[in-house]
Amino acid sequence: MPVLVILGPTGVGKSAVAVEVALRLPGEIISADSRAFFRGLDIVTDKPTSEVRERVPHHLIDIVEITGSYDAMAFRNDVARLIPEIQSRGCVPIIAGGGTLYLGAVLRGIFSGPSADPDLRARLDARPLPDLYTELMKVDPAAARRIHPNDRLRITRALEVYEVTGWPISELQDAAEPLPYDFVVVGLRMEREAHRAAIAARVDRMLEEGLIDEVRSLRAQGLTPQHQAYRTIGVREAFEYLDGGLSYEELRERIIRNTWTLVRRQMAWFRRERDVEWIDVTGKDTGSIAETIVNRFRIADSAH
């Protein structure tokens, strides 16, 4: 039985579609949302509600404390464990999300890199980001083309790997292997203006549901800028709002703008992914999208 992957940028409705697909197959959902792993980020990540998760089993949601960390290798290992478990229950594993780093660990492979070097990491963290990116362009231009110039975390990691191993991280990654399963990969995308409107509506809904209070509570629980979960869009902006650095309208606009920037980065990654069957979901209802995906999956399954 193949493994179904439903990917796409933030705001196209992947979670709702995955639920409808799971109900029809039946299937169980493995979340590839890079921040849904963390407990407490319910509104800011637009997690499926408890009612939805009672209807369809979801995995890898709320598995990490808000001050904890989770990486692509851990995700790959968890997915490798979950796929046969789900299949043993006669269900289809459905990996759904837009976390490109995590999807890449499954679909492209990941290498087991060296452990972080605290002293080297501190030296790199102290340097201006443009300088780090310029250095990366010199030592590993292939990695630099894959990494956004503002992505300090990945730029730092690439330079760290090069310094410790003497090998470009891009070459090590290219030598990695995907998980040994047949994947049926479906991508959801939306026309630009419709997508921007959907993101704005999503942000408005999150703010109405209590995004600011959620972040205030997480801050009281110990969440700081040093933690991985802080890098979630909506969290950093809410911190600045709570500190008086943004007005409410500026907060809203900043979240929308940063979400759209994320969408553009995600789509740049997805365009490099081979064997994705894309569906334009503009103006389509969730049920019809799900039915299209189910039909495609059944055709692929029958071919195996």
Topology (elements, then pairings):
Blueprint: E1 3-7, H1 14-24, E2 27-31, H2 50-55, E3 58-59, H3 72-88, E4 92-97, H4 100-107, H5 118-125, H6 129-139, H7 141-146, H8 152-165, H9 169-174, E5 183-189, H10 192-209, H11 211-220, H12 235-242, H13 248-271, E6 276-280, H14 286-303
Parallel strand pairs: 1-4, 1-5, 2-3, 2-4, 5-6
Helix pairs in contact: 1-14, 3-4, 5-8, 6-8, 10-13, 11-12, 12-13
Describe the model.
The protein is of the alpha/beta class and 304 residues long. It folds into two domains: 234 residues, Rossmann fold (3-Layer(aba) Sandwich), CATH 3.40.50.300; 55 residues, Histone, subunit A (Orthogonal Bundle), CATH 1.10.20.140. The chain is built from 14 helices and six strands. A six-stranded parallel sheet has the order 3-2-4-1-5-6, with helices on both faces. α3 crosses α4 and α6 crosses α8. It is globular and about 55 Å long. It starts with a strand and ends with a helix. The mean pLDDT is 93.
